[in-house]
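Issue: ligand-bound run for FE2/S2 (inorganic) cluster - logging full I/O for the record.

Environment: standard queue, default settings, no custom constraints.

Inputs:
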Amino acid sequence: MPKMIFVERDGTRREVDAPLGLSVLEVAHKHGVDIEGACEGSLACSTCHVIVDPSWYARLSKATEDEEDMLDLAFGLQATSRLGCQIVMTPELDGLVVKLPAATRHASK
Ligand code: FES
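Outputs:
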């Protein structure tokens, strides 16, 4: 099974199983990684914001315009920011590294 690595806010790296076809958000939830994902992947929030390791960023399929629009609302946006619910695990992404942003805009606040 592919793996991916979440880099937590304190710098801890967590390697977890990442089943094919699941989004990074779903993988995070499966393993109790703290990404909110308020809209459950319907591109209506930015709380699933993750920062993709630069060496992986180019290997992801390009963000859609809708994703870009939502990303603009995310706190701490970086050049390799993406929405976790829009990155779907494929065999090529085995070993993917993403970092949790320092803060997210909680939909409930
Ligand atoms: S979970 Fe809301 S945009 Fe990803």
